[in-house]
User: What shape does this take?
Amino acid sequence: MSERLPVHRSTPAVPASGRRRSRRRQRVLAAALLAAFVCAPLPLLNEPAFAGDAAPTAATPAARQGTGTRSEIVSERTDSTTSWANADGTTTVETFTGPIRVKQPDGSWRPIDTTLVAEDGAVRPKTAAADISFSAGGSGAPLAEASRGGRTLGLDWPGKLPEPRLDGPTAVYPGAVEGGDLVVTALKEGFSHSVVLHERPDGPVSYRLPVSADGLTLHETVDERLRWSDRGGRTVATAPLPVMWGSAEQRASGEPKDLAAIDVTVERDADTGDQVLVLEPDEEFLAETAAPALVTALGERYGTDAVAVQVTPGVDALGLQANRYNDTTPYYGGARIYSRLTSNSASWCTAGFPWKYSGKWYMVTAGHCTTGNGAIMNPSHSDYIGPVVRDDWKNGYGSVKLSGQGYYSGDLALYRINSDSSASARIYKGGKTSTSSRPVHDYWRRWAQEGDKVCTGGMMAGEKCGWKVTDTQVNFTYSGGTRAKNMVVAKKTSGSCTINGDSGGPVYTVDGSGRAFAKGIISGGGGGGGDNSGGLFDPCWLYFTDIGLANSAFPGTVARY
Assistant: This one.
């Protein structure tokens, strides 16, 4: 029993008429060009602090509101949490990894609404956690700017802009570039930026984007990310490598099939001395990739709500050697798996830890990745690995108690590996296409505690360490309403977060000799802003199931090398 937990997904581009172009009219998309550095949601700005107790208002006359079996504890409401008093005397806290409401000067709360409106010569979202403004057309004003906590980041556009067409959180500047449109999208704490080409360019394309960031300097890192540092050299914001994509989609997930990096350089304007970000799309990609564009920027796609890390297809070329992204028997933990939910739907997730019971091989993963008696296959679909035999996740609901248990076991599933295949007590280490692995020595012999340090291994993000446990035995609600119960929460303030596709992956500690000790299974995550990178003011969040619950819920135990 399972479901696809909600994720932020891209949306089709629409032409100026407001209707989607047919494939015939727009056969030769160039690309959707993303400048995600425009800080969605502004990692350099102060993280939304938990607000103080809200004073009762006319709309909230009592300390507790609600009817039926539970009521909200209004005095404990924050921008990213809602606390509920349950009828049995317990308290449930629903936690989101980004703000869902904004506190007003009078102490009341207003839900975030990024619908754009034109006012006072600018375009702004109705309610956001940062002061965000877009150009209303013309010249002189920045294309987009976001301020918060005394810091401001912005993006300028050379030349005069047309009046934008507003559509929800998106402003489209038609014809702002030759053969295409300029698109900016308001996010909860920042914005994203795209260029959409409707015609194949005749030659090389280059975009020069003046950067406005008072007191900050933009650098390109050795791994081709973008970094802003202050005068003392301290990193205050980072952003991912800008990318472009076509709209040919992966059949299983609807995600882009063709994706390519963009050549990035940082220059100084000869006249003003200001920094300019120069983006040069790959000419071969533009010439060969055809289909309508996907406009939604990466920051919107992976937004800041608590979302399950589940379905994102890959775009890297696969080698013949078994690796994290294209595993073969004997199967390792931390590898990509294909889970068939129904005859018409499937999901990409990550294998957790190899499992042994009665001399047979199994693998544990996340329950929301599977369905009872569902089929698990290898990424190429050439090998039916085996059936799901245990699952504690119910479609449309969340965590459920397994038969005979009086407690919830988080988000878990167990699948058997058929006799014509096998597994090994190892998990992949390194990046997405790594062939390297580490042995699983044992599982951690106590429950997770606040302050524990852990690593994660996902089929998309690879191995990420630096997580620190902040809470245990937590119940929370994903953005689609499904509830995960009895979970562990961890965060980190540097490096990349987990991303869509990492669900089910292993959570572990590594000893001095490089051996892994199993600690849990990834369920969901969020934070990190539009660049999916943790910072002091915008940390990555991780939700996982303690491995001790798997040992209690399932026959057998973690396989040991």
Notes: The first strand starts at residue 32 and ends at 34. Residues 210 and 495 are 26 Å apart (CA to CA).
